[in-house]
Design a protein that fits this description.
It contains 13 helices and five strands. It has about 350 residues and is an alpha/beta fold. Strand 4, helix 10 and strand 5 form a beta-alpha-beta unit.
Length: about 350
Amino acid sequence: MKTGSSTKELVVSADDRVQLESIARSQSLPAGLVRRAQMILHMASGESNSAVARRFRVSRPTVTMWRTRYRESGIAGLHNELKPGRPRSTGEEQIAKLINTALKSRPRSKTHWSRRSLAEATGLSPTTVHRYLTLFGVQPHRSRSFKLSTDPFFIEKVRDVVGLYLNPPEHALVLCVDEKSQVQALERTQPLLPMGLGYVEGVTHDYVRHGTTTLFAALDIANGSVLTQCKPRHRHQEFLSFLRHIEAGVPPTLEVHLICDNYATHKHPRVRSWLARRPRFHLHFTPTYSSWLNQVERWFALITNQAIRRGSFQSVTDLKRQINAFVDHYNQHPKPFMWTATAESILAKLERLCKVINGTQH
């Protein structure tokens, strides 16, 4: 509902909305452009100029200006106007050739373009190439990984797990459960060089291996606390032992919903038999190749970055001691991860990705 303004409704076409949403999510485009795209999307959803101004902490005339520029010039109007100065020496055709070369071709015998190779191919200077690649947000030197799930019940599982995150059941505990296997107890062969003014901490590149442990963890999505155990292996026997550990730590009056991945250990007949005898336990599986849907993976990244990766451990026992110390300190002030993505937004993003792969959307 619009409030505080009788401004004419701002109409955004379907194509413009896709581009605006892409700009609004970008972490590489200029911050000002990203914010303007977000403002236009909020105005298109019915928010008044005053409400948008308060949301983004800008003046109402500023909001009105960008609204007008979008209405008159579309997305192009959201870019900064050219400032006075020396006329641009690079023609439109040269810029178009540069961007098309970067987007639609690859250099001979190489996997991707560099600034210098693009300069040689287009006849522009490396500085000019860098400037226009940055302006258009084209980054041929970077890539990001992805993996599409092949699970035939992908949609059902996404809705099931996300439903637990956004609308957890009453009188129940929702736990994200997984194991981090092969955590290595690595001892650096030489002492660390401490960080100082102007230089970072120095770490030797070689180390001595003292063995491994498997870290089992259950993350409570409600308060962020974790229940952990270190085991020598990650078979179904160890998983069953950890389930008994969870059972002992959860009040008997609560239902227990466990979110797990599709690792064979979690589906072992003995595990299924154990769960069948305990009707208050409910197992929910994430889709295949969708570990990102399990919040405990984010906690594993925390303990890896903050307590394991840069550590030096003289034994597996020393490693376990460090893990337990981190967990004890973490549980003193736990913070839950704020899950905001709905099942529909996840499926819509997957649809866009499939269209890009198929060449039906750019």
